[in-house]
Each structure stands twice: as C-alpha cells, then as structure tokens.
Amino acid sequence: MSGQSQRLTVVPTVTMLGIMKARLVGATRGHALLKKKSDALTVQFRQILKNIVTTKESMGDVMKTSSFALTEAKYVAGENIKHIVLENVQTASLKVRSRQENIAGVKLPKFEYFTEGDTKNALTGLARGGQQVQLCRAAYIKAIELLVELASLQTSFLTLDEAIKTTNRRVNALENVVKPRLENTITYIKGELDELEREDFFRLKKIQGYKKREMERQLASAKQFAEEQVAEKISLQKGISISSAHTLLSAEGGKDEDIIF
Questions:
Q1: C-alpha closest to that of 106 among 45, 185, 31
Q2: How far apart are the first and last CA of the chain?
Q3: What's the pTM?
Q4: Rounded Cα distance, 161 and 45, in Å
Q5: Which residues on neighbouring strands pair with residue 114, listed in sequence order?
Q6: Which domain covers residue 96, as residue numbers?
Q7: What domain count does the chain have?
C-alpha cells in the first residue's frame, strides 16, 4: 500500500512513459528555478535584516537627539510653542508615498517621504527660541526619514519571510513528493513494459517452437508418405513380375505332344 501511494495510478504504456518523463523534466526544471528563487530571496532577506538592525540602532540615537531638541525648544520658546506650530500648519509638508519593487518575482512595498510645497513656519519662534525650533524641526525630519525607511524595511522583511516560506514549501514538495512519485511511476512503467516484452518474447519463442515442430512433423509425414509410395511402387513391380512368371510356368506346364513324359 505504501509503494502504491508513492507512485501515480497510470496505465503502463509507452505513451504514458513519455508523458511521465516530460512531467519529470518539468518538475526538475521547476525545482531548480524555485531553488534559485529561494536563494535569491534569502540573500535579500538577510540584507534587509542587516539594514533593519542598523536602522534601529540609528533610530535610537536620532530619537534621543529629537527628544532633547524638543525639550530645548520648549525650554527656550516656552510650553506654548507646540500650539503655535500647530496653528501655523494647515497641510502637512512631509508626505509618504509607496511603490513596489520586484525581486525574484516577489513584489516588495517600498515607502519614501517627500516634501510638498513650501514650509510656512519659517517665522515660528521669531520672538524667542527660533533657532531651537528649527533645530527641533530638522531633528524630527531626520527621525521621520528613518521611521519611513524602517517601516519599508520591516514590511519588506515580513513579505519576504512569507514568500521564502511559500517557496521553500514548494521546493520541498517537489523534492520530496512530486519528483520521487514521478520517478517511481517511471520505474513502474518501465518494469511493466519490460515484463510485457519478456512475455511477448516468450510467446514468440513458443510459437516459433510450435511452428518448427509442426514443420518437422509435416516433413516427416511427407517423407514417410514418399517412402510408402516408393515401397508400394516397388511392391507393385514385384507383383507384376511374379504374376508373369506364374503365367509362363502355367503355359509351359501344359501337355506337349512332343514330350514323352
């Protein structure tokens, strides 16, 4: 039962053997391509993981600098600087857009920030603390840049992780299930075809032996018939000779007047 489950249920014919060989070639080619895809995704995955670690390390320093800059701006310009900034901002000048990057057939989302329009808060903190406000703004722009990059890397990380798992499952299925099953099926078909060929060969040998014996029997019968014909002809010739001799003797055995006795 286990051997039956390790091969496909097919009719062992030459046509089916060709089909199974073609499927095995396709499975082997697909396995090689998926293996290369898995390797390429793994390389990209490790590179993204390395970038995530580096970005997170930088993120800690940038966020610390940004927090210090905000505290300094509040200290110099006062606690109301936050409300002043919010009142002067109508629309966001920094925006994030997304795009897709194709790596080995896998579409990875990429995020990037861009500046839209002119900044209208150049005069914020003009009374006092203007320099600290601008430094705080620059620090948080740097933080936003790293946050967008980190979000892009982590999203790509999760997408690649799922793609690698799916690809590896397909590779393992082809390597451990599909290819062995096709190979076992091909072996089974070849064995059945060889068995049929041996049976046909044995049948032909048997038929040839029967024909040979039949021919020998016919030759023997013909030879025996010819010998019987020859023997019958000879016996007929002998019979004619004996009859002639008896006829002559009978004729000579008649009474001859010239013979005294």
A1: 45
A2: 113
A3: 0.64
A4: 7
A5: 95
A6: 2-194
A7: 1
pLDDT tens per residue across span 141-177: 888 889 999 999 999 999 999 999 999 999 999 999 9
Assigned domain for 172 exists: yes
What stretches in the chain show pLDDT beneath 70? 1-5, 77-78, 80-89, 117-130, 238-261
Q: Please indicate, yes or no, if residue 205 is contained in any of the structural domains.
A: no
Per-residue b or e along 129-152, where b marks 16 or more CB atoms closer than 10 Å to that residue's CB = bbebbbbbbebbeebeebbbbbbb
- List the structure tokens of 258: 């010239």
Radius of gyration for the chain, computed over Cα atoms and rounded to the nearest angstrom: 54
CA distance 68 to 76: 12
Token duo for residue 117: 């329009």
Within a domain: residue 151?
A: yes
Any idea what the CATH number is for the domain that residue 32 is in? 1.10.287.3240
- Residue 255 included in any domain: no
